[in-house]
Predict the 3D structure of the following.
Amino acid sequence: MKHLLKLPLCALAFAMTANTGFAQSSATGLKDAYKDYFSIGVAVNMQNITNPEQIAIIKKDFNSITAENDMKPQPTEPAYGQFNWENADKIANFCRSNGIKLRGHCLMWHAQIGKWMYQDEKGNLVSKEKLFQNMKHHITAIMERYKDVVYAWDVVNEAISDGGRPVMGQKPSPYRNSPLYQIAGDEFIKKAFIYAREADPNVLLFYNDYNAADPQKRDRIYNMVKSMKEEGVPIDGIGRCRCRPDEILYNSEAHPYHRAGHSRQRGNGRTSQLQPRGRRHQSDSKTASGGPIHTSLQDSPQT
């Protein structure tokens, strides 16, 4: 286990030390060493919270937890009204028992989501009204269940396109052409945030995506969030998945979005490995659109 954690933890500590000038002693956990700078989070699965050695590492080094997969739509509600809370409950109870904050991930995603959300019994896409009904049903149920322990939710995950070539002189859509988008366009994103805010007026609500260091995708994300916030959509911040050292460099650039990132860590094939995540305190500063800044500092080894 020590071997598995060595690379990401050292990389994370190096990145933070380079920015803060503060060194961690071997006897001090990461969360305590950097308590004046940012909270430290980790993505977990069932093995992480049942293995004594890994539990000890979590309790020593981390003060924020994200469920790697167990709070996503498909695992929690594989069919309409058929909830499976077992694993999500275990993670939430672990956080409650140990006084660790929990970040919810995620409410709406085109992957790991039951087809009942967007298809009828014949396999056809449902109407926009039915989609919104299904979305509100799921979002309300899971948010109310974990309202006491979740401090932030990744509401919509990876809805922005990675880009494409123009078709017949038309610019490609900035959005991923998922079934959710095919049914409702970008309105499904707006509705997800509206339903989430109705379910919990106090929790922080994030749009979350990957490859946010790519300038073109970065701008698509920023422009979407800025536009929606101007319409009154309750988006509190932007999440960045899988930040690496080459992505961290973008934080110092001039574009306002470069200072607007945070997220839990994505899986990398080693599902039992703890994956560290750094998060700036919400009060540090604001994004150009007025939301809190959460910055990810992860560096995970690839296998």
Remarks:
- Strands lie at 38-44, 64-67, 101-109, 150-157, 204-209, 237-240, 275-280.
- The longest strand covers residues 101-109.
- Residues 2-20 form the longest helix (19 residues).
- Residues 1-24, 245-273, 275-289, 295-303 have pLDDT under 50 and may be disordered.
